Amino acid sequence: MERSEEVRRWMAQAKRDLKAARDSLEDGNHEWACFQAQQAAEKAPKALLLGLGRGAWGHSLVELLDRLSGIYGEAASLLADARELDRHFIPARYPSAFKSGYPGMYYDEETAKRAIQRAEGILRWTRERLGELGVST
Protein backbone atom coordinates (compact mmCIF):
# COMPACT_ATOMS: atom_id res chain seq x y z
CA MET A 1 0.00 0.00 0.00
CA GLU A 2 1.28 3.45 -0.86
CA ARG A 3 2.25 5.72 2.00
CA SER A 4 -0.28 8.39 1.00
CA GLU A 5 -3.08 5.81 0.97
CA GLU A 6 -2.15 4.67 4.48
CA VAL A 7 -2.19 8.31 5.62
CA ARG A 8 -5.66 8.79 4.13
CA ARG A 9 -6.93 5.66 5.89
CA TRP A 10 -5.77 6.96 9.27
CA MET A 11 -7.21 10.42 8.67
CA ALA A 12 -10.52 8.96 7.46
CA GLN A 13 -10.86 7.10 10.75
CA ALA A 14 -9.80 10.18 12.73
CA LYS A 15 -12.63 12.12 11.07
CA ARG A 16 -15.11 9.33 11.83
CA ASP A 17 -13.98 9.28 15.47
CA LEU A 18 -14.49 13.05 15.66
CA LYS A 19 -17.99 12.71 14.20
CA ALA A 20 -18.72 9.98 16.75
CA ALA A 21 -17.56 12.35 19.51
CA ARG A 22 -19.96 15.03 18.27
CA ASP A 23 -22.78 12.48 18.07
CA SER A 24 -22.05 11.27 21.61
CA LEU A 25 -22.07 14.86 22.86
CA GLU A 26 -25.46 15.41 21.24
CA ASP A 27 -26.76 12.20 22.82
CA GLY A 28 -25.52 13.23 26.27
CA ASN A 29 -22.85 10.53 26.44
CA HIS A 30 -20.17 12.94 27.59
CA GLU A 31 -17.61 10.36 28.67
CA TRP A 32 -17.75 8.71 25.24
CA ALA A 33 -17.48 12.08 23.52
CA CYS A 34 -14.25 12.70 25.45
CA PHE A 35 -12.80 9.28 24.66
CA GLN A 36 -13.75 9.52 20.98
CA ALA A 37 -12.21 13.00 20.78
CA GLN A 38 -9.00 11.58 22.24
CA GLN A 39 -9.07 8.77 19.69
CA ALA A 40 -9.60 11.18 16.79
CA ALA A 41 -6.74 13.35 17.97
CA GLU A 42 -4.46 10.32 18.46
CA LYS A 43 -4.98 9.03 14.93
CA ALA A 44 -4.19 12.35 13.24
CA PRO A 45 -0.53 12.66 14.32
CA LYS A 46 -0.11 8.96 13.59
CA ALA A 47 -1.21 9.71 10.02
CA LEU A 48 1.35 12.51 9.80
CA LEU A 49 4.12 10.33 11.19
CA LEU A 50 3.25 7.67 8.61
CA GLY A 51 3.31 10.35 5.91
CA LEU A 52 6.81 11.24 7.02
CA GLY A 53 7.87 7.60 6.86
CA ARG A 54 8.15 7.33 10.64
CA GLY A 55 6.78 4.79 13.06
CA ALA A 56 3.41 5.63 14.53
CA TRP A 57 3.02 3.43 17.60
CA GLY A 58 1.60 4.18 21.01
CA HIS A 59 -1.51 5.70 22.50
CA SER A 60 -0.11 8.82 24.15
CA LEU A 61 -1.03 11.88 22.15
CA VAL A 62 1.57 13.83 24.13
CA GLU A 63 4.32 11.43 23.03
CA LEU A 64 3.17 11.44 19.40
CA LEU A 65 3.13 15.24 19.23
CA ASP A 66 6.42 15.44 21.10
CA ARG A 67 7.98 13.29 18.38
CA LEU A 68 6.53 15.62 15.75
CA SER A 69 7.80 18.73 17.56
CA GLY A 70 11.32 17.73 16.54
CA ILE A 71 10.21 18.20 12.92
CA TYR A 72 7.52 20.84 13.35
CA GLY A 73 8.41 23.11 16.24
CA GLU A 74 4.87 24.44 16.45
CA ALA A 75 3.61 20.97 17.41
CA ALA A 76 4.78 21.82 20.93
CA SER A 77 1.97 24.40 21.10
CA LEU A 78 -0.52 21.52 20.93
CA LEU A 79 0.90 19.68 23.93
CA ALA A 80 -1.44 21.32 26.46
CA ASP A 81 -4.43 20.12 24.43
CA ALA A 82 -2.83 16.69 24.10
CA ARG A 83 -2.36 16.42 27.88
CA GLU A 84 -6.03 17.19 28.45
CA LEU A 85 -7.15 14.67 25.83
CA ASP A 86 -4.82 11.93 27.10
CA ARG A 87 -6.52 12.21 30.49
CA HIS A 88 -9.67 10.73 28.93
CA PHE A 89 -8.03 7.58 27.54
CA ILE A 90 -8.74 5.35 30.57
CA PRO A 91 -11.20 7.10 32.93
CA ALA A 92 -13.82 7.76 30.26
CA ARG A 93 -14.23 4.00 29.80
CA TYR A 94 -13.61 2.21 33.07
CA PRO A 95 -15.56 2.45 36.36
CA SER A 96 -12.42 1.32 38.19
CA ALA A 97 -10.87 4.69 37.37
CA PHE A 98 -13.09 6.15 40.11
CA LYS A 99 -13.57 5.28 43.76
CA SER A 100 -17.32 5.00 43.23
CA GLY A 101 -19.87 5.38 40.48
CA TYR A 102 -19.08 5.05 36.80
CA PRO A 103 -17.52 7.31 34.14
CA GLY A 104 -20.79 8.84 32.97
CA MET A 105 -21.28 10.37 36.44
CA TYR A 106 -18.02 12.32 36.23
CA TYR A 107 -18.19 13.81 32.73
CA ASP A 108 -20.29 16.81 31.75
CA GLU A 109 -21.21 18.69 28.60
CA GLU A 110 -18.56 21.40 29.00
CA THR A 111 -15.78 18.84 29.42
CA ALA A 112 -16.96 17.04 26.28
CA LYS A 113 -17.17 20.28 24.29
CA ARG A 114 -13.63 21.23 25.29
CA ALA A 115 -12.33 17.78 24.34
CA ILE A 116 -13.94 18.03 20.91
CA GLN A 117 -12.54 21.52 20.36
CA ARG A 118 -9.05 20.32 21.28
CA ALA A 119 -9.34 17.37 18.91
CA GLU A 120 -10.61 19.63 16.12
CA GLY A 121 -7.55 21.83 16.52
CA ILE A 122 -5.16 18.88 16.34
CA LEU A 123 -6.89 17.47 13.25
CA ARG A 124 -6.83 20.90 11.58
CA TRP A 125 -3.11 21.32 12.29
CA THR A 126 -2.42 17.80 11.01
CA ARG A 127 -4.37 18.35 7.77
CA GLU A 128 -2.34 21.51 7.15
CA ARG A 129 0.96 19.64 7.62
CA LEU A 130 -0.22 16.80 5.39
CA GLY A 131 -1.18 19.36 2.74
CA GLU A 132 2.39 20.66 2.85
CA LEU A 133 3.49 17.09 2.09
CA GLY A 134 1.11 17.00 -0.87
CA VAL A 135 -1.33 14.57 0.76
CA SER A 136 -4.99 15.55 0.61
CA THR A 137 -7.31 14.05 3.19
Key traits:
6 helices; Four Helix Bundle (Hemerythrin (Met), subunit A); 137 residues
Can you walk through the features of this model?
With 137 residues, this protein is an all-alpha fold. The chain contains 6 helices and no strands.
Describe the protein's topology.
Blueprint: H1 3-27, H2 30-51, H3 61-69, H4 79-86, H5 103-106, H6 109-132
Helix pairs in contact: 1-2, 1-6, 2-3, 2-6, 3-4, 4-6
SS summary, helix count:
6
Strand residue percentage: under 5%
Terminal Cα span: 16 Å
Shape descriptor: elongated
CATH superfamily: Nucleotidyltransferases  domain 2
Task: Give, in order, the helices and strands.
Answer: HHHHHH
Helix percentage? 55-70%
Average per-residue pLDDT, rounded, comes to 96
Q: How many individual β-strands?
A: 0
Q: Rg, please?
A: 15 Å
What's the number of structural domains? 1
Quick structural overview:
67% of the residues lie in helices and 0% in strands.
